[in-house]
Amino acid sequence: MTTFEKITALLDQHQASYRVVEHAAVGQTDQISVIRGNALSQAAKAMVLEVAMPDGAPSRRLLAIVPGDCRINFKSAARAIGGKKSSFADPAEAQALTGCVMGAVPPFSFDDRLALRVDTRLQQAGTLWFNAGELEKSIALAVDDYFRIVGDACWADIATPIAITA
What is the secondary structure of the chain as a DSSP string? Predict the structure, then answer.
């Protein structure tokens, strides 16, 4: 089953309100948001992080979801799962954990080794937009349905707004 099929099956199982949008294969949040016609604040950027744990414990992997108009706060993301610090995971490992090429990673984890944390700013999105496991397919999902599916335990303040310069 592809990641796209896993997502749509999950959304159907939970009777979520969503629609699939097909478009050119684009993995950059700012560019795909223009194509889809959504605000950057509605775009769910997904990043796989490696998190250093305290007391010599093995590092963990985190799927961090932030709004398109923000960047990841690495320290806050690490703390959200009890870690000390974090950095981007190796791209090959990230692809293996998500089953997706970078830029197509959805805001859902289908691997028990990949913890999920979502920035609280996305609660205000109304509709959440994300590439759905494939660069040429996006999903527009009611944000209330998204959070009903992933649960309250995944909330965390893990993003910093990007400063817009003139």
Answer: --HHHHHHHHHHHTT--EEEEE-S----HHHHHHHHT--GGGBEEEEEEEEEPGGGPPPEEEEEEEETTEEE-HHHHHHTTT-SEEEEPPHHHHHHHHSS-TT---S---STTEEEEEEGGGGG-SEEEEEEEETTEEEEEEHHHHHHHH-GGGEE--EEEPPP--
User: 33: number of CA atoms within 13 Å, CB side?
Assistant: 17
Within a 10 A sphere around the Cβ of 152, how many other Cβ atoms?
7
Full pLDDT tens readout for the chain, 166 residues? 899 999 999 999 999 999 999 998 988 899 999 999 999 999 999 999 999 999 989 999 999 999 999 999 999 999 999 999 999 999 999 999 999 998 899 999 999 999 999 999 999 999 999 999 999 999 999 999 999 999 887 999 999 998 765 5
Neighbour tally for 55: CB within 10 Å = 5
